[in-house]
C-alpha cells in the first residue's frame, strides 16, 4: 500500500501508521517474517533496487523507496505530518532493546533501511530551524497553527530518528 502511489497522501499516512504500530510491538523489529506475516522491516525493505524511469528519476517500487521519497527534498509536496510520521516509522523500526539480539537476516534488513534513509534524514536534520514569528496581541495570544510548525515538526522528527539510531 505504501509503495504504490503518491497520489493519495492520506492512504500513505495510514499505511505508515499501520507499519509503525506493528513495529512498536516487542523490540522495534517484529519477529514475524516476510512470508505474509507483516514484518515492518521486511515490508519496508526489499532486495529489489529502484530503477530509473525514462526521465532518469528513480521510480518508487518499494515501501522503503516511498518513505525515502517522502523524506527527500522532492517530498516537500507532502504534508509535514506525513513526513513526520515517516520519521516515526523509521524511529520505531530502528530502536533497539539491548536485551534482544537480532538474527543476521533482521540485522541486514535494519542496516538496509538505515542506509537508504540516512541521507534524507541527515539533510532534514541539518535544515535551519524556522522561527515561528506569529503576531501576538497582549490581550489575546495566538498559538501557532499546525501548518506553521511544519518545517520544525519534520526537522525535529528527523533529529529524533537519528538520535534513536545512535547517529
Automatic annotation (TrEMBL):
UniProt lists compositionally biased (Low complexity) regions at 41-55, 135-148
Write out the ranges of the annotated region (Disordered).
32-55, 131-152
The domain of life for this entry's organism is: Eukaryota
What is the protein's given name?
Answer: Uncharacterized protein
Species of provenance: Hydnum rufescens UP504
Instruction: Recall the taxonomic lineage recorded for the source organism.
Output: Eukaryota, Fungi, Dikarya, Basidiomycota, Agaricomycotina
